[in-house]
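Ops channel
N.P.: pipeline sanity check, posting one input/output pair.
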């Protein structure tokens, strides 16, 4: 038998090599590979809009800016969407600026500076140390689980602010927490119906070799519970809450930098696309404007306090406890299951359904 390949097989092999080279060159140019369209919710994955969004986001997805930059971006890129930092750390600074700009009395100014030095900064340092330790240990999910232990202290944060800063400070702390919960809950409900795949999962073959020094980011974002929550961005929605409130309190236009850094960080860590962060910021601005319109920027006849904060936190907890019962199980096409299996924590092969779909659930 001759070991020489037939001209037909040789031509087929050369065509395959050429096709692979063309695909690699197109990916290096930032193009998005074509896939079959499918829907996990109402968002059309790899439709025209989705492909355009991935294309314009690709330069940031592929950027490699070094370890120092990633350590810096790990704060604005994550903190605005984490309940512990959004409930304890950031409201302290909103209260500081609210009192500074709207309570100029000398005695109140001295108390406000003490609030900054002995409350806001120590809380920030303590939470930052815990956060970066867990981030380096690839246990970032522990920082999110800390929400359960911090609900009670956060609920009574307005009372502490009232004792030290008066009604203005207490109202600012409670207003910040309530606005954050409202904005994040709006985005969370849309996430559950849109079910858009995060870039870290949808573009895994193209982005897995992009260097990132914190593997914990990809671990959390690729979890079966969060991998399909790309649209809209809850973290950027949280950043817009603080930006909008600081702007309303008269801090100037510099606070817009918070939203810009948060949006860039979410794209850089492959958590969201460009449209995701844009939609999150717009939804947050609308919800924050509504809450401020209802309760007021400054305390009037009845100031916001711990009672309002506890009510909003109760709604937040009830949604996360009862919400999963109202959404159907997630189904992923079989052709994408093989690609995503190494990223997702748990895929239930036993629950395969006709049509090449499988159910995805959260592992223990």
């Amino acid at each position: 038998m001759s070991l020489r390949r037939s001209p037909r097989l040789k031509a087929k092999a050369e065509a395959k090599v050429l096709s692979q080279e063309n695909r690699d060159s197109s990916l290096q140019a930032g193009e998005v590979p074509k896939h079959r369209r499918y829907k996990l919710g109402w968002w059309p994955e790899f439709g025209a809009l989705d492909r355009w969004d991935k294309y314009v986001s690709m330069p940031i997805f592929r950027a490699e800016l070094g370890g120092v930059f990633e350590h810096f971006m790990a704060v604005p890129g994550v903190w605005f969407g984490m309940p512990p930092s959004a409930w304890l750390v950031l409201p302290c600074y909103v209260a500081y600026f609210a009192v500074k700009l709207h309570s100029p009395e000398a005695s109140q100014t001295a108390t406000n500076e003490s609030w900054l030095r002995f409350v806001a900064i120590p809380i920030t340092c303590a939470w930052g140390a815990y956060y970066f330790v867990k981030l380096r240990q690839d246990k970032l999910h522990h920082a999110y689980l800390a929400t359960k232990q911090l609900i009670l202290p956060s609920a009574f944060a307005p009372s502490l602010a009232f004792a030290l800063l008066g009604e203005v400070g207490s109202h600012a702390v409670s207003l910040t927490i309530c606005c954050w919960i409202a904005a994040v809950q709006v985005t969370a409900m849309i996430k559950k119906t849109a079910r858009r795949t995060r870039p870290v999962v949808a573009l895994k073959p193209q982005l897995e070799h992009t260097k990132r020094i914190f593997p914990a980011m990809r671990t959390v974002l690729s979890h079966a519970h969060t991998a399909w929550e790309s649209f809209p961005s809850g973290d950027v929605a949280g950043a817009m809450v603080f930006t909008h409130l600081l702007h309303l309190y008269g801090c100037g236009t510099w606070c817009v930098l918070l939203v810009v850094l948060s949006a860039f960080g979410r794209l850089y860590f492959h958590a969201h696309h460009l449209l995701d962060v844009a939609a999150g910021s717009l939804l947050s601005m609308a919800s924050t404007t509504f809450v401020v319109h209802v309760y007021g920027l400054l305390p009037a006849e009845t100031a916001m306090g711990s009672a309002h904060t506890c009510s909003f936190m109760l709604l937040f907890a009830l949604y996360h406890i009862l919400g999963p019962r109202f959404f159907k199980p997630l189904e992923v096409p079989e052709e994408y299951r093989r690609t995503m299996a190494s990223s997702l924590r748990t895929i239930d092969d036993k629950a395969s359904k006709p049509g090449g779909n499988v159910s995805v659930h959260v592992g223990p």
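N.P.: looks fine end to end. The chain has 16 helices and five strands.
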